[in-house]
Amino acid sequence: MIKKLSTGLLLVIACSANATDDYSKELYDIYCTACHAVAASGAPQAFTSEWDERLDKGMTTLVNHAINGIGNMPPMGTCAECSAEDLEDIIRYMAQEQ
């Protein structure tokens, strides 16, 4: 049981560390804040519970939405340099409540 808890805790820590690295924060600041930090945009606001329902759809769906665009969000959120992994890290970063 302790081994399972330790493994789960390590996984959570690894995911959290990956989602908050400096590169992800920089990409968020450059490409995402114009919408995800402005309530009037209609985009889910970063660092709020607005992400809870979206996360229930699964990360694959959310990354696909980011890649292809959804609603008013343009494909790749205008981040031509972002990989699918970058987008996943940014989504995890924005989904953290602060």
For the termini, the CA-CA separation is 31 Å
Q: Please state the average pLDDT score.
A: 86
Which stretches are low in confidence, meaning pLDDT under 50 for 5 or more residues running?
Answer: 5-19
Q: C-alpha Rg, in Å?
A: 14 Å
Describe the largest sheet: none
Order of helices and strands: HHHHH
Give the number of DSSP strands: 0
The secondary-structure class comes to mainly alpha
Helix content: 55-70%
Helical run tally: 5
Question: What is the molecular shape?
Answer: globular
What portion of the residues fall into strands of 2 or more residues?
Answer: under 5%
Defining key terms:
98 residues; single chain; mainly alpha
Description of the molecule:
Helix content is 61%, strand content 0%. The protein has five helices and no strands.
Question: Could you give a quick summary of the protein structure above?
Answer:
The chain is an all-alpha fold and 98 residues long. It has helices at residues 2-19, 22-36, 50-55, 59-68, 84-94.
Break the fold down into its secondary structure elements and pairings:
Blueprint: H1 2-19, H2 22-36, H3 50-55, H4 59-68, H5 84-94
Helix pairs in contact: 1-5, 2-5, 4-5
